Every structure is written in C-alpha cells, then in structure tokens.
Amino acid sequence: MAARSNQTGNQGSAQDQMVAGSAWMTAGSIFSRILGAVYIIPWNIWFGAFYLQGNALYGKGYNIYSFFLIAAIAGVPSAIAKQVAHYNALNEYGISVRLYKRGLEIAIVTGISIALLMYFGAPLFTGGDAHLVSVLHSLAWAILIIPTMSLTRGYFQGFQQMAPSAISQFVEQLVRVAYMLITAFIIMRVLNGNWVTAVSQSTFAAAIGALGGLLILGVYYWRRRHYFRDLVANSNNELVVPANQLYKEIIAQAVPFIVLGAGITIFQLIDQYTFAPIMHMAGTYTDAHLNDLFALFGVNANKLIMITISLASALAVTVVPLLSESYTRGNKSEISAQLSNAFLMFEFVMIPSALGMAAIAGPLNLVFYGRSHAALAASILAFSSYLSILLGLYTVVSALMQGISQNKRAVRYFLVGTVVKFIVQWPLVYFFGAFGPLIATGIGFTVTCYLIIHSLDVQFGINFAHIAKKTNGILLTSIGTYVLARLVAWIGAFSGSQGRVVNFLIVMVAVIVAGYFYVYVVLRTRLADSILGPRIAGLRRRLHIR
C-alpha cells in the first residue's frame, strides 16, 4: 500500500514538474514566436513593393540555415538534457558537470566547422538564386554562437530548471527583432537602399540575438553556481565514466536528435527545392509568381503556425528529461502515465490554438501580410493551421521516443514518413499547386506519428480509453471556440475593410471572446484540473468560476 502511495506521489510530482516546466517553456516559446511574427507588420510596410520577394529570400535563407544550425548543434542540447537528467537520477551530479563540459567542446568544434562550411559553400546551396549568397554569409555568424547557447539551455533543462531557457529565449528574440527592425528602417526608408542588403541584415540579426540570449544564461549560471557545486559535493561519486565514454554518449544520443529535430525543416527544404520545378512542369509560370506562391505557403503561413507549434515544442523539451529519469528507474507504469499526460497536455493547448487560428485566418492574414493575394493567402493559412496539429504532434512524439532511448527506431519511422512525402509530393503539387506541399507534408507526418505512437503503445501500454475520454471534452470545447471565433470574423467581414487596424480589432475581439469561452468551460467542467493538476484551482478562484 505504501509503495502504491509512493508511486502515486511520484506520478503526481512528475506531472507537477511537467506542468511547471511546460508553463515556463510555453511562455518563453510563445512570447518569442509572437515577437517573431509581429515584426512582420512594420517590416512589410518598410519593404513596400519588395516585400514578397524579400520575405521569400528571407524564408529560403532561414530554411537552409535551420538545417545547418541543427547539424552544428548536432542534437547536443537535447542529448545533454537527457543524459544530465539520467545521471542526476543516479545522484551523480559530478558526471553531469563533466558531461556539460565535454558537450561544450563538441559544440564549439562543430559550430566553427559548420559555420565555415556554410559561409564558403554558400554558392552551392542557393538553388540558382544568387541573392541567397549574402544571406547565407550573414547567417553563418549565428552558427558560431548558438551551439554554446543551446547547449547551456540543455544543461539547465536537465536539472528541470526551465526558467533560464525560457527567459534567454525571449531575450534572444527581443534583441534579434529589434536589430531587424532598426536596420530595415534605416536601409529601406532612411537610405533608400537595396532590399537584398536589408534582408541580409535582417538575417544577421540571428547572431546579435544569440549574443543576448547567451549573456542571460551566463548570468543565471553565475547566480546558481553555488547550488551546482553543492550538488556535486553531495554526489554518490560511485560511477567512473572516462572522457571518451562521455564523448561517445553525447554523440550516440545526439545524432538521432539531428534527424528528428530537423524533421520539419527537412520537409520544408523538400518543398523549397521541388516546388518550382514541378510547377514549371504543370504550367507556364514566371519565377517571380512561383516565388510569391512559395512565400505564401512556405514562409508567411509557416511563421504564424509556428506560434502554435512552439507550444508543442515547449512541451517536448520538458518531457524528455522526465521520461529519461523514469526510464532509468525502469518504472513502466510511471512512463505510461507520463505518456498519457504528455498527449493530453499537447491536445489541451494545441487543438484550440490551431482551430482558433484557422477560424480567423482571413483577418489575421490581413493584419500581418496586407492585401497581396489576400483570398489565397487566407485559405493557405487556414489549411496550414489544421496541419499544425500534425506538425506539433510529430514534435512531441519524436521527443517521447528520445526520452525513452528509442532514438534509432524514431529515426527509422521518420525516414519512412520522408519517403512517403517524396512519393506523393510530385502528383500533389502538380494538381493542387501551393496546397500540394502542405498536403504531402500532412501525409508524411501522419505516417511517422502513427508508427511512433503504435510503438509506444506496444512497449508501455498507452491508456487510450483514458485519453479519449478527455480528448472528447477538449475537442468539443475547441469546436465551440472555433465557432465563436469564426462568428466574430464573419461579423467583422461586414465592415468591408482590408485595413490593418480594423482587422487587428477583429482578431483581438475573436481571441478574447473565444479564448475566454475555452478557459471558462475547461475550468467550469474541471477538465483543466484533470489534465494540469490541482494547482489550476487557484486560477478558477481568481476568475470567480465555480
């Protein structure tokens, strides 16, 4: 009986840790993503007629950069978080510190190597767009800094300390956006300069932002240095792990993180390099027109849905160390409970967010991107919003597999989904145009997610009946949220305005009305309590909901 009580307590503690960690990471991610989207409005205005071309160039450069960045980081931050949590669970904090130092060495070496490759090899990755060379040169500088910053975030996460990561992430984005807007205004409005130069400075902002984020992490580490030293001093110090073995552990854990972490980016790169050739086969289109279409589905919509996907990413980062601890202890029932919690927390935030964005796609697109291709852009954004549920699910389930050391299997399942994406890409793009890549991405990730979830169920027994019961409540409430948001957008459309101010007001009213409805229902029905734990009762009292 005592053992059962202790087990229940452990599961409750794990749930509390997951909720608290997710709260920090979600806040950091969502504020960062909002900043990363809001800058579009003035950026768009200042670029004027060059906006769509500039945004397409920016998006193409960032897709390539993202892939190189993942290779440079080499999955080390997530691997460090996982392995640090593993050794911490064994009370071997000294090994965790050594692991961090060895990982830092790897991150610095790979960062320098990949930055040099990206800088000097830039002409090889442009796909025929000469403007991309200067953009890739400016982005290479960020790769020198970000691996060290990301690795340190992983170290904090391994100790279940999510605040430093979340705050540094926000500061990084704040500094980056500030630099982007200042340089864009000066180059395009004050100096009447070249739009390619402005885009290059906007991408160089990634390096400036990384310096800001790294500085915040350094301050946190300095303030908590005595805490880390005390943990090391009170470690068991029973395990002896040679330096070579630490290197091997980091690399063995990191390589799968490269593939899985780059999953969405890899799919975007497939779209970037195949969309125009397939469309040229389908009809007579100019390169400028195809660039505009790519900007609509591959850049514009993507930036907005990444706000909601960041919720799933924040959850994924939180789950990995917790699962790793349970896996180290060999507690299958605890793992099963954590899997259920992870799926429910994902649904709880992702489904209403995605449906809500789809409901207000029209006015939301006008606020951020103006009137260019307004009807088509709104349709693509709505479709992408539904698709974001699958992208977010992939982010979570791939992290779950990594947390239980099923890295190779997760990579195999991703490769299967990638093959499916390649197979269906050509016919779908040929017949459905700008929607084709999105449909192909959805099919590919559906296959990968199914294979991973099936594998988790076979190994640990996912309680689908328990999840389904609460999912029904989440889904019904989310549909109600969608209907309310859609109704507000429909009423607002009678204004006939395509201006940013009016549509911003429509979006805000829809968010407030539909958002309050969702919060009220999940609190009133106690659905939030069953998913997020008893602490949520405090919010219900503050909102005077019985």
From TrEMBL:
Keywords: Cell membrane, Membrane, Transmembrane, Transmembrane helix
Recorded topology in the membrane: Multi-pass membrane protein
Keyword Transmembrane helix in annotation: yes
Main location: membrane
Lineage of the organism: Bacteria, Bacillati, Bacillota, Bacilli, Lactobacillales
Spans through the membrane: 34-52, 64-85, 106-125, 131-152, 173-191, 203-222, 250-270, 304-323, 344-368, 374-398, 410-428, 434-453, 474-495, 501-523
Transcription keyword on record: no
Annotated localization: Cell membrane
Pfam families per record: Polysacc_synt (PF01943)
Protein name: Polysaccharide biosynthesis C-terminal domain-containing protein
